[in-house]
Amino acid sequence: MLMRTDPFREFDRLAQQVLGSTARPSAMTMDAYRSGDEFVVHFDLPGVDPETIDLDIERNVLSVRAERRSAAPEDAELIVAERPTGSFSRQLFLGDTLDTERIDASYDAGVLTLRIPVAEQAKPRRIQIAGGDSGRRQLGSAT
């Protein structure tokens, strides 16, 4: 249901340490689980202004983008800069069993939470069995 690995994540981390920048946006960490009739995803985005978060869905691909700016003024001399800044992105490949028309998104305490309901047609349902011979055609009889 989700892309679980990012083969370029370690390469990007190493390039950022050596070059001081990344060639592409950094991936954001996340947790995902199913709870009852909804799929829940939490993205860690501490220090991100909610106005910079962008959610798009095209077909069954959900794209999340956000930007964290440095808190230091431009003319400040940085002594230590370990908190990543810049663009962050992640794509989720959603299954057909999710209702992408009713995604709920909230942002609280640096965590973006998406709640995606399971589609009605994907929920388990009970099938009624008709009793007796009513509605059945008997083989071999002339009608």
From TrEMBL:
CDD domains: ACD_sHsps-like
Domain of life per record: Bacteria
PROSITE patterns (alphabetical): SHSP
Span of domain SHSP: 21-132
PANTHER family documented for this protein: HEAT-SHOCK PROTEIN 20 FAMILY MEMBER
Family: Belongs to the small heat shock protein (HSP20) family.
Name of the molecule in the record: Heat-shock protein Hsp20
